[in-house]
Structures are given as structure tokens and as C-alpha cells.
Design a protein that fits this description.
Helix content is 36%, strand content 10%. It has one domain. The protein has 215 residues and is an alpha+beta fold. Helix 1 packs across helix 4. Strands 1-2-6-3 form a four-stranded antiparallel beta sheet. Strands 4-5 form a two-stranded antiparallel sheet.
Length: 215
Amino acid sequence: MNQKGFTLTEISISLVVIGLIVAGVLKGQSMIRNARVHSLITLQSETQTAFNAFVDRYRALPGDYAAASTALRCPSTCINGNGNGRIDIVPRENILVWTHLSVAGLIIGSFTYNGSTPASTENTPANPYGGLLDVAYTDSYANSNGVKRHNINLGSMIPSDVLSEVDRKIDDGNPLSGKFRFSDWSHDGNPMDACIVSTMWNSESQPNCGAVWIM
């Protein structure tokens, strides 16, 4: 029985096709990754802009605003902050901040906080990977040395290589210094992966990482 195999030409064509498919897949993954890097940078920038605009307009911090119930129009009663000049995690002003920014028309989306429920997509925006954002006065960032600062936490579930690229584009590329730093704090409280190695972001992509932008 005669058995006919593939010719060299057919094998060459097959290898070229496979190569094109692999290249297309890798290119697609790279484009998705770059889009999410850009999205995170935009998210940080827009949040900072909204925060500053609120302070300029109301002379108070969103979430901490003690006159919110009279100055803002909420779907129901607006909850006041305590007006101490800080966005505190207790009593959850870090969640209330999004309601104040939302009803002031300074961020996209509608977020309503009732004063008692934990953070969720109903009262807090999320990053492209599903982790919830946070704005608070904390020291939950790398090398804080116990010094609390207002910061924008971009949330958890972000791959370490994506955060590395964000850091490289908007700061110094070091997760332990500058304004963009590693943070292991998130609303869900779940431990994060090995996101950093020495003074570098882990290049072997870790799927559950987080970072803050120190304001």
C-alpha cells in the first residue's frame, strides 16, 4: 500500500500559517494588556481630577464633607462626613466618597452608599479587573513608615506586570518609592500574591496585586 506524506512545501505552508496564528494571538494579548494599562492610568487621572474639582467647588473633601446633606442632591438623603479633614476608613468615608463625587457630577456612573453596607459595585467603582477602588487617608502603601497620606487605591486583582508598566509610564518604575507604590490593602481583605521581588514588580505576572497613587 502506498502512503503519501506531506511535501516540504505543504509543511512549510503549515508552519507559516501556525506562526501567523501564534503571532496574532500574542499581538491580541499585547493590545488587550496595553488597553488595560491605559485604562488604569486614565482611571487614576480622572479620579484625581474629580477629587481636586470637588475640593475646589465645596472647599471640603468628598466623603468627609460635613454639609453634604444640604449642599448635594442624592437619590435619598445625602450622608455627611465628619468634616475632620481626612477621608477615614472608619466611619467608611472611603466608601461615601464615591457618592459625593457621583452626585456632584464629577465622575461617570451612579454610586449610592447607605452608611452601613460594605463596598460593592453599587457604591464603589471597579478597575478593569473587577477590584474595587478606594480613596482614603491611610498608610497602606509600601515604605509608608507609618506616615498616612490621602491616596487613590486602584483596587486588587491587577496583574503585577500591568502595574509595572503603569509605574514605568507615570512614575519611577519602583513599587517601593515615588507616588505610585505597591499596596496589599483591598476591600475584600484577601491576601495578595508575590507582587514584588526586592525593589521590582514581579515580572512573572501575578494575577492579584494592587497599588496606590499617593496624593
